[in-house]
Model the fold of this input.
Amino acid sequence: EAQVTQNPRYLITVTGKKLTVTCSQNMNHEYMSWYRQDPGLGLRQIYYSMNVEVTDKGDVPEGYKVSRKEKRNFPLILESPSPNQTSLYFCASSFELAGGRPQFFGPGTRLTVL
Amino acid sequence: AQKVTQAQTEISVVEKEDVTLDCVYETRDTTYYLFWYKQPPSGELVFLIRRNSFDEQNEISGRYSWNFQKSTSSFNFTITASQVVDSAVYFCALSEAHAGKSTFGDGTTLTVKP
Done:
C-alpha cells in the first residue's frame, strides 16, 4: 500500500530533551516536506526537500533540523524542544511538487513539550 | 512571497444546502499550482483537486466543483447538496513552479448538520 508513515504518532516530552520524528514514504517520491498545524494557523511549512541531500527552509524552520540521506526517509529533529513546539506535525511527499503534483500526507504526530 | 487567504473560518449549513468555500491567493510567479485538501474529523489530510495557473477551466466532480479565476486570484470550492460526511476542515494551498515552498491557508471548518 502506498503510504507515508510517521513515528511516533504521539509523544510527550520535556523541555530540552532531543527528539526525532521519523518519516518514510514508499512511493519513490522526489519531494518531501514537514508541516506543523496549530489551531487557527493552518499548516505551516517547516522544511522541505526536493531531492536526496537537498533541503531548504520553509516558513517556520527555527528550532528544527532535517536531513535527507535517502530518498524514502526525511526525519525531523528537535535538538532542544520548547513548549512553543507543542503542535501536530505532518510529513508529506510528492512525486514532484514543483511540477504540480499533489502532496500525500502521513497520519500526523502529536507532540507535547512540557 | 506567496500567500493564501481563506477568510471564512467556520461555516455551518444544513444538509442538502449548497456551500462555497472561498480561497484568494497572492503570488509573483506566472506559473503556479493551486490545491484543495480535506481534513475530516479523523485528522488525515486528503488531496481533492489541483489546478494549473494556465488552465482556467472550471471543474466538476460529482457534488464538488471548483471555480478558478485568475483575474480575481481566487480558487473557490463549491459543494452542492452538502452531506454530513462533508463536515471537515478544508485547506486551499499554493505552490510555485520550479520551487519547493508550499503555502496553505488557515483552513475553513465546514459543519453540515443533519
Remarks:
- Chain A has a mean pLDDT of 95.
